[in-house]
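Example with several molecule types.
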Amino acid sequence: MNTEILSGKGLAGLIRQRAGEEARLLDAAGVRPSLAVVVATADESTLWYVRSIERAAERAGIDCRILDLGQDATEQVLARVLTDLGSEPSVHGIILQTPLPEGVRGENLVGLIAPEKDIDGANPLSLGRLAVGQPAFAPATARSVVEILDHFEVPTAGRDVVVVGRSAVVGKPLSLLLLAKDATVTICHSRTGSLEPFTRSADVVVVAAGRTGLLTGSHVSEKTVVVDVGTNVLPDGSLVGDVDEASVTGVAAALTPVPGGVGSVTTALLLLHTVEAARQQSGVLGLSLAAGVA
Ligand code: NAP
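Resulting structure tokens for the full complex:
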């Protein structure tokens, strides 16, 4: 079996290009799309990730403000900043970056992100809207999986899709998006007895658990398309997913790589969501960007 590698890089480039075109249209109409990223950590890999969003945004013609409140920021300060950004007309998109300082309850903060600016679908209201089919921004990672499947023409309607992971940022919203695309969705988690009976018979398996080597060749069959959402940093600093690539390669039909798969599309979608938010808030008509689920 020749396992096809589904790289996200080409799709990410297309999405960034669309975001850039849309940003130029808005700019010409006097609206400069703008994204605010609220950060309160000294974690180097997080800061590196935030700077990569900033660079990508600027290349696409989107203003990006990093509000670095430091690792000692309190919940009250973070709450005030998020509330202020919500009423700031020049800001169209808001991301509250994790991890947050110890003792800060993220669940109390995400609800303060203005829903129309919630471009990474963190506010529970966004998840609720997705659940009932109302317009909302899905978490970019969840949408990224769906966009990758669409891009590579992997059918989901009427197919069996297994999602491993049930977090509010990946597994749950992704399951809702797949359900909206008429997939038969099974959600597995840490209390699922054995993954194998579910994953081996599935057409598509999405793994979002944050566990190195969780999905192996024995979990898949020759028809399985595997999407690896996991990002795990090994002691030597290298990045791997949740899939044991060596044993799945040659058994499954297709596999997304890590890095260069879901993650690259996710960053591009944050830009696309920002210009979509700017267009909605300004009332300026744009390209037909409402494609997808956001
Ligand atoms: P999370 O909040 O820790 O959730 C992990 C989920 O996986 C939980 O539902 C957990 O089950 C389940 N799980 C853990 N161990 C399992 C096992 N042995 N078997 C089956 N299920 C298991 O993580 P997350 O925020 O959803 O992120 C998941 C992964 O995606 C992480 O590696 C994260 O770094 C990565 N990620 C990538 C991107 C990207 O853009 N590429 C973005 C976001 C996250 P329980 O609910 O029972 O605990």
